[in-house]
Design goal:
Elements lengths: L1 E3 L11 H7 L12 E8 L10 E9 L3 E6 L5 H17 L4 H7 L14 H5 L2 H18 L3 E4 L3 E9 L7 E10 L5 E10 L4 H27 L2 H16 L7 H19 L5 H10 L4 H4 L3 H12 L6 H8 L1
Antiparallel strand pairs: 1-6, 2-3, 2-8, 3-4, 4-5, 6-7, 7-8
Helix pairs in contact: 1-2, 2-5, 3-8, 6-9, 6-12, 7-8, 9-11
């Protein structure tokens, strides 16, 4: 089984900090990322030669990518504990106190806005926290951590080695990632199981699509409204009304801001309607032939082409999976 989905050149290469800020997909009761033991290999050889062995450690699935933390036997538990704390901190350290109560509830139309640095103008305290997070990410990489953004996933190959006496079937995976500059890297791993692992393959393709649409749709919607101006006007109004305590009214501010954005997007047909469908289809046009090879994505393309589906960000992602 092999799937090929070319890189969408409209999507920038996410940084390690971007992945950490997106948050872990699986967490324990204390909010720490939950991972699985895994040995990572580098190269496109399904036999996984010992010379290709790269990392023996833990795999953490994040909402925007996969993170691998290496294992060092002499202080494995201590290192893993510190790594989990760093990974957990990555998703929350840039958002603190009253700031988190506001930014955490912002509508998706602010997606592009939050990447422009304007939040640092509104919340100066975040700039230091963002710099600290960058240092945390750099330290993890220095210690051997690997981060693999879903947006860069372009090929998946899956092979099953039949079970033998007293041993379950061996499932082998190769994942190829491509940066915007064309640089490619392939990583592989294997696992034993009596059950087929094709659902895991499809889950990774789903993650790629979610990451792609999760960037493109807010970008399209953001082009239809001057979100920075609308947001700044609302912040100014709340600062004038409540003074230094304006952040305590974050939920009210966000609701009012979201309603203003929704009204403008609704009027232009970019929450429901053909304009959003057409614009989304245009941004993924080079990839459509590849998406048609995957049943669930073929249906999504058909919906976009027919204009019969009401597309919102969350609804689009739900329909894709």
């Amino acid at each position: 089984m092999k799937y090929i989905i070319p890189r969408n050149k409209l999507i920038p290469d996410p940084s390690f900090e971007d992945i950490l800020q997106a948050g872990p997909r699986f967490k324990d009761k204390d909010g720490n990322p939950v991972g699985d033991p895994l040995t990572l290999y580098r190269g496109n050889d399904m036999s996984f030669p010992k010379s290709a062995k790269l990392i023996e450690g833990m795999q953490f699935l994040y909402n925007e990518g996969t993170v691998y933390i290496p294992k060092f036997a002499s202080y494995a538990e201590v290192y893993f504990d510190l790594s989990r704390q760093a990974l957990k901190a990555g998703a929350t350290m840039v958002l603190g106190g009253a700031v988190e109560s506001i930014i955490g509830e912002l509508p998706i139309y602010l997606g592009a806005l939050l990447h422009t640095g304007i939040e640092h103008k509104l919340f100066p305290e975040k700039e230091h926290a963002a710099s600290h997070l960058k240092m945390v990410a750099a330290d993890l990489v220095k210690k051997g951590a690997v981060y693999l953004p879903y947006a860069q996933l372009v090929e998946i190959e899956y092979q099953v080695i039949p079970p033998k006496f007293l041993r379950k079937a061996e499932h082998r995976f190769l994942f190829t990632y491509e940066r915007l500059d064309g640089e490619r890297t392939t990583y592989g791993f294997w696992t034993y199981s009596s059950n087929p692992q094709d659902k895991f393959v499809l889950a990774m393709i789903d993650a790629r699509l979610k990451s792609e649409l999760g960037y493109l749709i807010p970008m399209i919607q953001g082009e239809q409204i001057n979100s920075e101006q609308v947001w700044a006007a609302h912040v100014e109004k709340y600062q004038s009304r409540y003074g230094e305590k304006w952040r305590e009214h974050g939920a009210e501010l966000v609701t009012e801001f979201k309603n203003a954005c929704d009204e403008e997007l609704e009027r232009k047909g970019f929450i429901k309607g053909r304009p959003l469908h057409a614009a989304t289809l245009e941004r993924i046009a080079p990839l459509v032939p590849y998406y048609r090879q995957i049943p669930r994505f073929k249906e999504l393309v058909q919906f976009l082409e027919s204009g019969d589906m009401e597309i919102k960000f969350t609804e689009t992602l739900d329909s894709a999976v």
